[in-house]
Amino acid sequence: MKDTDFHLPAGSAARGPYALDVGPERAGWGYSSLRVLQLGPGEAHEFDAGESEWIVLPLSGGCTVAAGGETFALHGRESVFTGVSDFAYIPRDARARISSERGGRFALTGARCERRLPARYGPAGDVPVELRGSGTCSRQVNNFGAAGVFEADRLIAVEVLTPGGNWSSYPPHKHDEHREGVESELEEIYYFEIAPHDRTPGLGYQRVSPSGHGKGTDVLAEVRGGDAVLIPDGWHGPSIAAPGHDMYYLNVMAGPGTDRAWLICDHPDHAWIRGAWADTPLDPRLPLYGARESAGRPAEEGAE
């Protein structure tokens, strides 16, 4: 299949109020979804969760989320490069409403699921901030929706921040077949935002290579802010941040396994790099920011 089947430049997968709308039908798979909602000051949006569970994650700005008989005020953040955000979980079969007094952009990470869990609030201060790799492979991971951190039925979602000039998602790895205790079968979406340098927009690169499973996904894409890359299978990585341009990407994963777990297999040609990290210091630019206590809180209906 062609790069264009998997690389979605900004705006190419827009629909209605969503700047990006990717679900199982668009992606040609069974579980993972991602929507990016832009709201102007005072605007609101309602949607049915359907057979998917969702996490509403502010990318910029704050909002109020009402779903499942609960209402949560999300403090949010100025941008993905300035801080960890609080978030809200929306159960399947719920009617949800997102409103924003000042406007903003909000990611809706979703996964088809079976269990209907309660609507919940996720404080920013509870998000584990992890530093991975070393040297030019150093990156920061905000594990807001990771397995073992926040309960969901199938959805796994994390944020990754890569300083300019570094390689992330490296060594290349895969999770496209079920091997008990070794590897999970997970579909994945990467959504990118790239920091500008002065007035120059940022860019980066994403590689996915065939693993011998699934669709033979093969991508080498120049990615810019608002782009997405679909990864139904294959070795994925590196994600390369151009010098001078910090890279952010949001990972959304889900799959058919009964255990909600992120188990990966490194590419055998490149797995050695992990053993070299112990002798190389972490990039001193990290963390770009740490976890903080959020000003967001459960709120009365209509509060902001």
TrEMBL record:
* Keyword Methyltransferase annotated: no
Membrane-spanning residues: none
> EC number(s) in its UniProt entry?
5.3.1.30
Q: Which UniProt keywords apply?
A: Isomerase
Q: Decide whether keyword Disulfide bond is in the record.
A: no
- MF annotations from Gene Ontology: 5-deoxy-D-glucuronate isomerase activity; glucuronate isomerase activity
The superkingdom listed in its UniProt entry is Bacteria
A GO BP term, please?
Answer: inositol catabolic process
InterPro entries in alphabetical order? Deoxy-glucuronate_isom_IolB, KduI/IolB_isomerase, RmlC-like_jellyroll, RmlC_Cupin_sf
Q: What is this protein called?
A: 5-deoxy-glucuronate isomerase
The gene that this protein is the product of is iolB
